[in-house]
Amino acid sequence: KQWYQRRVAITAGIDRATGEDHFSDAFAYEELYGGAIIKVKCQWGFYSDNEDVQLAGSNPSAEEEETGEGGETKERKIDLVHQFKLVECTYMNKKGFKEWLTDEDNLKRWKKYLTDALQEKDFKLSDEDAAAKVEGGVMKEWKKELTNFAKFLLPQWKNVMIFHDAKEDIEGAKIFYVGDDSGDHFYYIKDLYRTDKF
After folding, report:
1. Which of 12, 13, 53, 160 fits a disulfide with 24 by CB distance 3.0 to 4.6 angstroms?
2. CB burial of residue 2 (10 Å; 0-12, 13-18, 19+)
3. Which residues on adjacent β-strands are paired with residue 12?
4. What 3-state DSSP class applies to 115?
5. Closest Cα to residue 191, out of 118, 127, 141?
């Protein structure tokens, strides 16, 4: 018998500022903080530059774990970092994170992203109606949920790593890794992304 793998459409999260993919629904995820944050399960592994992440159900042999074909040395990194070619954001410390969340230019840009997100969900919404919804409470509620997320993140800052894509655009979305007793997870601010199916 021959087996064929059925092609399944994958939804990717694309940074609205840089146009780069940061995650996809091929990885287990859940929405938190009133849908403002996406929590994606991730794991550490050994990867070489030209290798794809093995998703659930695959079983690479133990011998392949730390060296690739031709004896190529593999680097220990997070599967999502490898798959989406993410780069650690070294300039953002705890104080910088707080400033980033409250920066006026960021908030102005994010307000536009919230408006875009509403119109992507409901294509009948006019620019004016979407903007009115954002002004009328959506932005306030969203900021409240981001504050709640910050309250979760800040006390455990020693367990946090921050990533962005290879463009390292200061306006680009930041991704927050937390390794704690519940496992390893990436946290994404949902409306900084648009989605696309592949």
Report:
1. 12
2. exposed
3. 24, 196
4. helix
5. 118
